[in-house]
Specification:
- It is a single chain.
- The strands form two sheets. A five-stranded antiparallel beta sheet has the order 1-2-3-5-4.
- The radius of gyration is 43 Å and the shape is elongated.
- The chain has a domain of 61 residues.
- By secondary structure, it is an alpha+beta fold.
- Helix 1 runs parallel beside helix 2, helix 4 packs across helix 11 and helix 5 runs antiparallel to helix 6.
- The protein contains twelve helices and seven strands.
- Helices cover 52% and strands 10% of the residues.
- Its EC number is 2.7.11.1.
């Protein structure tokens, strides 16, 4: 079966959009002429009686008002539809204005198309240094926060559970008597109750800390710093001050380390401070490290509440005694080694071992403190991480901060320190 072929004598081309609108205008013009003739015949009859003339004010309709013109043309034919003279004049003038705009658009560019709108140049906003600091702080907070949430390894709650099971096993083994199932269940129930109270206290501390940051605390809702009564000043330093405080509710004595935020930011010590706090949290339960009781902050200060060591530091003991007996020296040297070994077992290094940082407890044993220079290799504890965020934003925005002579000298020292590993790895020595 052969395919059917249709031959057309005069093939028709496809209508363009312009031809379609021209045909619509022609039809509307014809309808307008018919209506105008009807109106003129009526006005001529009315002229004989009143002696007044009414001119035809109809005009062509633009392409954008084809549908609107159809509605207006059919409106007088509908019963109950009336158009007053003023409204008809306004609609006529509106159609003329649209026609003029259509002509301007069609003559403004070739082919009647719209011309390209040229974008006007505008001034690039230049943020201040304070804004850059806030942006860098926000980015650092988000990265560190989600890194803690998504970090691999057991959570602090799981670590406490493991320590409890180990202590429970050692206690039953040391006593020589195996604990019954009821006793083990009672011990675990006690742990769950203590864990719930601990989590509740953490939520309360976090709420009060946020209230202090928002500066919304009042007499009935005090901040956490108001819960401690200052007894005396134990020491002062470049970072802040160490106070002997008493908890108003529990009436227990602690050592509170108050650190000024302004000094921390000015000296770029964010990484060291975060490392100190993280190490104290990781060393929970260790008997060779000064334990952390609480940590919080307000608008101007950071607070680290730790156990109070009434014996002072080991250097004060050496100054007071001048020399120690061999037995006592052997005892303290062994405890110093145990303190350092406890830090290394947590995969940290102290980097500031000296007699000043070993404190004597009420029982006479040594505990190590002052972890401002401690490091575990994590990126959030490295100062280069914070400086890169801050200065990279400044360089991208074209803000150049030279600093004073000391800052420039430190920058040159840092540059010289980076040239050595570069030469070792590449074998090319950089000059100048």
């Amino acid at each position: 079966m052969e395919p059917t072929v249709i031959l057309r004598a005069q093939p028709k081309s496809r209508h363009s959009l312009k031809q379609t609108f021209q045909a619509a205008e022609t039809q509307l013009d014809a309808s307008d002429m018919t209506s105008s003739n009807t109106v003129s015949s009526k006005t001529s009859t009315h002229k004989g009686s009143s002696g007044r003339e009414i001119k035809d004010s109809t005009g062509k309709i633009t392409q954008n008002s084809v549908l609107e013109g159809k509605d207006r043309a059919t409106c007088p034919r509908e019963p109950g539809c009336r158009i007053r003279g003023g409204q008809q004049d306004s609609m006529t003038s509106k159609r003329r204005g649209q026609k003029a705009n259509s002509r301007n658009i069609s003559h403004g560019s070739p082919g009647g198309t719209l011309a390209t709108i040229e974008e006007a140049a505008f001034a690039q906003p230049c943020p201040s240094i304070a804004t850059v600091e806030r942006v860098a702080a926000t980015k650092i907070y988000l990265e560190t926060h989600f890194e803690q949430l998504l970090a691999a390894g057991p959570s602090p709650r799981q670590i406490r559970q493991q320590l409890f099971e180990i202590q429970l096993f050692n206690r039953s083994r040391a006593g020589g008597v195996t604990l019954s199932t009821a006793e083990i269940q009672a011990e675990r129930s006690l742990l769950h109750r203590l864990e719930s109270e601990h989590l509740r206290e953490l939520r309360v501390i976090k709420t009060k800390s946020w209230r202090a940051l928002r500066a919304t605390h009042s007499a009935d809702k005090p901040c956490l710093a108001d819960e401690y009564e200052t007894i005396k000043i134990l020491g002062k330093g470049s970072f802040g001050v160490v106070k002997l405080v008493r908890d108003r509710a529990r009436r227990q004595v602690y050592a509170m380390k108050v650190i000024k935020k302004s000094n921390t930011l000015r000296t770029s010590q964010e990484g060291h401070l975060r490392a100190e706090r993280d190490f104290l949290v990781a060393s929970e339960g260790s008997k060779w490290i000064v334990p952390l009781v609480a940590s919080f902050q307000d608008l101007s200060n950071l607070y680290l509440v730790m156990e109070y060591m009434p014996g002072g530091d080991f250097l004060a003991l050496l100054v007071r005694e001048n020399t120690l007996h061999e037995t006592i020296a052997r005892f303290y040297i062994a405890e110093i080694i145990m303190c350092v070994e406890a830090i290394h077992s947590l995969k940290w290094i102290h980097r500031d071992i000296k007699p000043d940082n070993f404190l004597i407890s009420a029982s006479g044993h040594l505990k190590i403190s002052d972890f401002g220079l401690a490091f575990d290799g994590h990126w959030s504890h490295d100062m280069a991480y914070y400086n890169s965020h801050r200065y990279s934003l400044l360089y991208k925005l074209g803000i150049n901060i030279e600093g004073d002579e000391r800052d420039q000298a430190e920058r040159l020292d840092t540059l010289a320190a980076t040239q050595l590993p570069s030469g070792i790895m590449t074998g090319i020595e950089k000059h100048g």
